[in-house]
Write a structure and sequence with these properties.
The protein has 15 helices and 23 strands. With about 450 residues, the chain is of the alpha+beta class. The strands form 7 sheets. It has a 7-stranded mixed β-sheet with strand order 3-9-10-16-13-12-11, sandwiched between helices. The chain is globular. It binds adenosine-5'-triphosphate. The site of adenosine-5'-triphosphate has 15 residues, from strand 10, strand 13, strand 16 and helix 11. It catalyses: tRNA(Gly) + glycine + ATP = glycyl-tRNA(Gly) + AMP + diphosphate.
Length: about 450
């Protein structure tokens, strides 16, 4: 993991947040390459979930919402984690994580008293000092609170949304009334979410500010388990298609006692991170819980008129929810490899071409004219199609290594012969093989190789 973090910093994928002020713990800023990777992840999700389907529409709702939204959704009363302190060294932990790590046992849905009993009863050791004396576990609400307007009384309290999903539920009727959607249909959204996590960490895996890509897929009650199965498999296929190794992915179905009270079935797509298996994408059958609650709290009708049955129904909803930052971490971890090449270590990020921040680099062998002019022309011509990089500094070996490290699939070298034979050399990141091709054919060549 340290190697990945240091590469991310060195090459401009991810920086410590507010670094020049000593950093703000567990905040991260995406640098030029990280911002590209993030866009690519989001674009691919949007393409697969919205554009390639005829039954899903997009939405971009506000982060700040009416406080009643979070009462209806259950977040004010129940969006809690249990935390527990070591009496000896005062370190603080999430009770469920402590149990999962020590006993390899999933305890979602257990009460705070039950969690305390498990930790005390099993004499779980503090990971920091090894002591077994714990306080009782207690609940902690994860929502960030702030105030809207100039007064700070309770009437102006608003929350930063802890998930994007509720923005979709409260717009259910708006979408129904303005687009031609018919059951089953989905509403998708990408956006920031905020959770005052007790134990953020593992780089960008768990942060207090993060981004989610959520789909709420509304179905007829009765069809829900078929669609649950469909989206469950979709999550796995999505990452396999991006080249993520099969052995690093698994679908973990929640046991009945683990399920949230509103959920009929939940599965997590998990990835084998360097620090262990962790949730990447959660898929839940939330039944009609959310729409029913919002009807109760808002007094508005959020039903669907089923023409075949000639009656109003409250759809069930399947929710696949994926973190953008976690997806990026998966792509970085899975793509990272080190190889021995002629006695030296070559570091490569073997990204899928669609995910690679830079698709192709142009590297002139000399800064002399007219060679540079030719190289620049090739770079500018290709820039219309791909995100390109131009690099004319340092030895060619160093320049290749940099492109390998940032995951650029192809690098073009322009040499003095190119001025005569109108050919260039294209090097493949993975095989390191070089093809000499006509400059006139370079766009077709790349389209063939990259697949777009
Ligand atoms: P955990 O149990 O790990 O706290 P969760 O089950 O609460 O996670 P969900 O509410 O299902 O997570 O969130 C959906 C997705 O959003 C997760 O699968 C993950 O990819 C992402 N996510 C959730 N919390 C965070 C966070 N603090 N930082 C980064 N991504 C997150």
């Amino acid at each position: 993991m340290n190697k990945i973090i240091s590469l991310c910093k060195r090459r401009g994928f991810v920086f410590q947040g507010s670094e020049i002020y000593g950093g703000l713990a567990n905040t991260w800023d995406y640098g030029p390459l990280g911002a590209e990777l993030k866009q690519n992840v989001k674009r691919m999700w949007w393409k697969k979930v919205v554009h390639e389907r005829e039954d899903v529409v997009g939405l971009d709702s506000a982060i700040l919402m009416h406080p009643r939204v979070w009462e209806a959704s259950g977040h004010v009363a129940g969006f809690n984690d249990a935390l527990i302190d070591c009496k000896q060294c005062k370190s603080r932990f999430r009770a469920d994580h402590l149990i999962e790590d020590a006993l390899n046992m999933h305890v979602e849905g257990k009460s705070v008293q039950e969690l305390t009993q498990i930790i005390h009863g099993n004499k779980i050791k503090c990971p920091v000092c090894g002591d077994v004396a714990w306080t009782d576990a207690r609940v902690f609400n994860l929502m960030f609170k702030t105030h809207q307007g100039v007064t700070e009384d309770s009437s102006s309290v608003v929350y930063l949304r802890p998930e994007t999903a509720q923005g979709i539920f409260v717009n259910f009727k708006n979408v129904l009334d303005t687009s031609r959607v018919k059951l089953p249909f989905g509403i998708a959204q990408i956006g920031k979410a905020f959770r005052n996590e007790i134990t953020p960490g593992n780089f960008i895996f768990r942060t207090r500010e993060f981004e989610q890509m959520e789909l709420e897929y509304f179905v007829k009650p009765g069809d829900d388990m078929n669609w649950f199965e469909f989206w469950r498999q979709f999550t796995m296929d999505f990452f396999l298609a991006l080249g993520v190794k099969k052995e690093n992915l698994r679908l973990r179905d929640h046991a009945p006692e683990e399920l949230s009270h509103y959920s009929k079935a939940t599965t997590d797509l998990e990835y084998k991170f360097p620090f262990g298996w962790g949730e990447l994408w959660g898929v839940a059958n939330r039944t009609d819980f959310d729409l029913t609650k919002h009807m109760e709290y808002s007094g508005k009708t959020l039903t669907y008129f089923d023409q075949a049955e000639n009656r109003q129904i409250t759809p069930y909803v399947i929710e696949p929810s994926l973190g953008v930052d976690r997806a990026m971490l998966v792509l970085l971890c899975d793509a990272y490899r080190e190889e021995e090449v002629e006695g030296e270590t070559r570091v490569v990020l073997g990204f899928h071409p669609e995910m690679a921040p830079i698709k192709c680099a142009v590297l002139p062998l000399s800064k002399k004219e007219p060679l540079e002019e030719l190289a620049r022309k090739i770079y500018h011509d290709l820039k219309k199609y791909y995100h390109m990089e131009y690099d004319n500094t340092g030895s060619i070996g160093k320049r290749y290594r940099r492109q390998d490290e940032i995951g650029t699939p192809y690098a073009i070298t322009v040499d003095f012969d190119s001025l005569e034979d109108h050919k260039i050399t294209v090097r493949d990141r993975d095989t390191m093989q070089q093809d000499r091709i006509d400059i006139a054919n370079v766009r077709e060549y790349l389209r063939d190789k990259l697949g777009f």
